[in-house]
Design goal:
single chain; about 375 residues; alpha+beta; GMP Synthetase, Chain A, domain 3; 12 helices
């Protein structure tokens, strides 16, 4: 069995477990412990508790309780931190470096100084570290932090009028999303739901689970419900007061309680649906014929039109067509031959062979045209 004591090193910071050994410690005592960063001074948050060795693992042993000399050393270290802060800020301004110094922390034995800063991107601070090491003759560590950690170290007053949660009691940052604000019916105004760090308020996470549990007992917005006297659609829901705003079919707005809902509303009839429509919306046009009848009628009309057009085309072609010619032999026999010269006969045959832009195919067996009568 060992004695486990819980210690914190900064206000509202993370708590760590240490082996108290045989020391008698109480809540609020300051102790000297060895950490990964070096020797530090912590404050006891919970008195020692006995636990099994198997479940605790290897814990660091507390060196001793802080003495008055140790507390005086802490005061001197705080003054050195302020001097280092002012010196570093001056060097940052001289070099025009894109960074903001937040805080300086010295180890209890002054073996190392940690400079916390914020920046939009990567910063080349090698020359700055050389200046700091030459001035303070100790190990220098530059650590970049986020805006939420900056607000935790700096502190301040929130929009609610109280001290910031992160700098007073909130030890770990929880992820916060806009969904939490929507679930609590908050105005999605960045100025109202953001803290001093520019991120969403940490307090949005405090009541999120409660709102989710209470909302299960209320109908969702847009659902149709029925009461004793009316039937309407849920417009708004106030979880804290238990009021539900209904929009009736005649566009009237009423407020009811959760207990007044009897169940889901019945579907609208055809007449109710037409009456519930807004005046700006025209009622849908009713089709007089069914689609099958209409398509059949269109098909019949199209067939009659095609038949009429075909008859008209036949009539016109019959009128425009020339009279049927007699056979070639009979025509030649009826018409007496006229005396033609050989040159005119040759030009007429040449003209016939070039009709419609085609040339008369050559025939090697055909006899040559006569040159005279």
């Amino acid at each position: 069995m060992i004695h486990i004591v819980t210690i914190q090193f900064t206000k509202a910071g993370k708590m760590y477990d240490f082996n108290a050994g045989t020391l008698e410690l109480a809540a609020g005592d300051h102790v000297i412990v060895e950490t990964e960063r070096g020797v530090g001074v912590g404050q006891v948050m919970k008195p020692p508790v006995e636990k099994d060795d198997a479940g605790t693992g290897s814990l660091t042993l507390v060196k001793r309780k802080a003495t008055p000399e140790d507390m005086a050393t802490i005061t001197r270290i705080a003054q050195k931190e302020q001097e280092a802060y002012r010196f570093c800020v001056d060097r940052i301004i001289e070099r025009a470096m894109p960074m903001k110094l937040v805080r300086v922390e010295y180890q209890f034995d002054s073996s190392k100084a940690v400079f916390f800063f914020t920046a939009d991107g990567r910063v080349d601070f090698r020359d700055l570290v050389k200046d700091l090491a030459h001035s303070f003759h100790t190990r220098i560590e530059m650590r970049q932090i986020g805006v939420r950690d900056e607000a935790k170290m700096t502190g301040g007053i929130a929009i609610c009028g109280r001290e910031l949660c992160c700098s007073s009691f909130l030890r770990d940052f929880q992820p916060v999303s806009v969904k939490m604000a929507k679930e609590q019916n908050l105005a999605l105004n960045p100025n109202k739901i953001s803290g001093q760090c520019g991120r969403l308020l940490c307090c949005l996470d405090y009541e999120y689970e409660t709102y989710c549990c209470l909302r299960k007992n209320f109908p969702k917005s847009g659902k149709r419900v029925r009461t004793v006297n009316a039937v309407g659609v849920v417009d708004k829901v106030n979880i804290l007061t238990g009021n539900i705003t209904l929009k009736l079919d005649d566009n009237k707005i009423i407020v009811i309680k959760r207990d007044e809902i009897l169940g889901d509303g019945a579907p609208l009839t055809a007449s109710e649906a037409v009456a519930a429509q807004s005046p700006q919306q025209a009622p849908p046009r009713v089709r007089e014929r069914r689609p099958e009848q209409r398509r059949k009628q269109e098909k019949t009309s199209l067939e009659s039109y095609n038949n009429q057009a075909e008859n008209t085309a036949k009539t016109m072609s019959a009128k425009a067509a020339p009279a049927p010619s007699a056979p070639r032999e009979q025509t030649a026999a009826a018409i007496p031959a006229l005396p033609e010269t050989g040159k005119e006969n040759q030009q007429r045959k040449k003209h016939r062979s070039r009709k419609h832009g085609h040339r008369k195919p050559s025939d090697s067996t055909a006899p040559a045209p006569s040159s005279g009568a």
